[in-house]
Design goal:
The protein is 37% helix and 18% strand. It is built from ten helices and nine strands. Strand 4, helix 3 and strand 5 form a beta-alpha-beta unit. The radius of gyration is 18 Å and the shape is globular.
Length: 321
């Protein structure tokens, strides 16, 4: 299924885009070379732990798996809910932001879903194998308490790419897979060699190609950047659970998302593709009207592709090991 959102861009969305452009969040080609981390978020927005306001809205529990923090957000709502394993974005070099927590709280409350949010190992201190080892350990622990048929794997940006790489790794290891995978503005190819990126880069007010390349190389280390685990677009997509992908047309990652859509069509992979005109990178996390549309669609995906989860099992799982 292909869904193209063509409603006029909301006023608030245009204002947010204007702010990003005025702040030169995405540095132009004539700007000085980026430092190791050139982020679209300022340091003040980073929040590795759920903020106090989120803890007031949700039951938050945290523990460690393979020396990495894992946060469990449990909505205070009765009824059927699902479980979401959420992998945050940040170009593989930055942790959660306040926008992530606000978005996850919204998803938890609207869908009655339990959110499992690991702060997986990041570059430059770590490389992709350490993140995968941590995720495999977490996945094993989840399976001891929670049915995989109630779990949806979701991620934004780098986390969206990691979600696609991880589900392929689960398949190749012949392990149980999630009920479905939802990718939000995913980074599918760290090489950024798609020729269409050059066309999209000037209209993207958020991402900087050179900064992404530096981060991608740090994440890959000495490994081939075209490894499936690093750039999942180079994998194969047979025998995967249903996939859903959300992307905007003012996002330089659109080039590889459209390429991925074509690859899925050729291989008969089950992909529901949502393209929003005039939307920038990870707009779902922003306080704009279009974010509400995406959340409503995510709610529908969760309701139809995952079974209910037992809250008692969630509470037992969230006590840690």
């Amino acid at each position: 299924m292909i869904f193209i959102h063509r409603e006029p861009q909301s006023t608030r969305s245009m204002l947010v885009e204007h702010v990003f452009r005025r702040a030169r969040v995405s540095l132009g080609p004539d700007s000085p070379p980026p430092r190791f981390i050139v982020r679209q978020y300022t340091q003040s927005l980073l929040a590795p732990e759920p903020p106090r306001g989120i803890r007031a809205r949700l039951d938050v529990r945290s523990f460690s798996v393979a020396q990495s923090r894992v946060h469990v957000l449990i909505p205070r709502i009765e009824g059927c809910g699902r479980c979401i394993l959420y992998l945050h974005g940040g170009s593989y070099v930055a942790t959660f932001t306040r926008q992530h927590w606000n978005f996850l709280a919204k998803i938890a409350e609207k869908t009655k879903s339990v959110i499992i949010a690991p702060d997986y190992p990041l570059a430059p201190g770590h490389r992709w194998p350490e993140a995968y080892r941590m995720l495999f350990a977490l996945w094993k622990r989840m399976g001891e308490f929670l049915p995989y048929t109630s779990t949806v794997l979701m991620g934004d940006s780098a986390g969206g790419g990691l979600a696609l790489g991880f589900v392929q790794a689960l398949r190749d290891a012949r392990l149980a897979m999630p009920a479905s995978v939802i990718m939000l503005s995913p980074w599918l190819d760290v090489t950024l060699e798609n020729p269409q990126i050059g066309t999209l880069s000037p209209v993207d007010p958020f991402l900087n190609v050179e900064a992404l390349r530096v981060a991608g190389k740090a994440w890959a280390g000495r490994s081939n950047p075209r490894r499936m685990e690093i750039s999942p677009i180079y994998g194969h997509f047979e025998d995967l659970p249903p996939l859903s992908l959300f992307i905007g047309t003012k996002d330089l990652l659109l080039a590889d998302c459209r390429k991925f859509r074509g690859l899925c069509a050729v291989t008969d992979a089950h992909l529901d593709y949502y393209e929003y005109e005039q939307m920038l990178h990870v707009w779902m996390l922003l306080p704009i009207r279009e974010s509400g549309h995406a959340v409503a669609q995510i709610t529908g995906i969760l309701a139809t592709q995952a079974q209910c989860v037992d809250v008692g099992a969630v509470l037992e799982f969230s006590q840690g090991g």
